[in-house]
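Training component of the fellowship. As part of building independent skills, the fellow (R.M.) carried out the full modelling exercise for a liganded target. The chosen ligand was S-adenosylmethionine. The inputs are recorded below so that the supervisory panel can assess the work.
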Amino acid sequence: MIKRFTDNFEEHVMIRCAILPKYPEDYVRDILNKYKPKKILEIGTFNGIMTAFLASFPFVEKVITLDITDYKTGYNLWKKMRVFEKISFRLIKNNKEKAGIIKEEKYFDFVFIDGEHSYKGIKLDYELVKDKTKLILFHDYGSNPYMTPFIQELGNKITHKRIDLSFALMEKK
Ligand SMILES: C[S@@+](CC[C@H](N)C(=O)[O-])C[C@H]1O[C@@H](n2cnc3c(N)ncnc32)[C@H](O)[C@@H]1O
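Fellow's submitted model of the complex:
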């Protein structure tokens, strides 16, 4: 019997999230276990793998995830991982719409910035969330030419960097 790609994809993701060490997820897992965020915002959903991973923690109650494209791969994965109910996917037309959605929310316990990878886009996402959370994880530090200088600009507001995993973390007191 021919297995559908999506079946393989979902199995792969579930195994990766649950078992395999030395993946970037390990870094995120440590942050989540330390802070136990209830409400998370992810900017940039893509195929929904990180969304599923974030929602899979028992203390996480809600993950709002935004993207300008609906890649549609997330839905089955989220259902299979039994996290669908925790996830609110918001397909946005533009940054104005994104700003509106973020403004509606009072706070987030954790924000993952991994959306538009231009300098302007990264800065905008940061500006939109900076007063709404004490914990921001930036992806693509060291691997994106715009993210790296932006992280440098943030100076000692950045509390931890893992250039090998492309992560930079901002933890506010
Ligand atoms: C690197 S992917 C996100 C990967 C995902 N966070 C993960 O870890 O699996 C970046 C995503 O950001 C989306 N994106 C691009 N511009 C955006 C914008 N202005 N606002 C939100 N998302 C955007 C892209 O469509 C793409 O799906």
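The panel noted the following from the submitted structure. The chain has a mean pLDDT of 90. The domain at 5-171 is CATH 3.40.50.150 (Rossmann fold).
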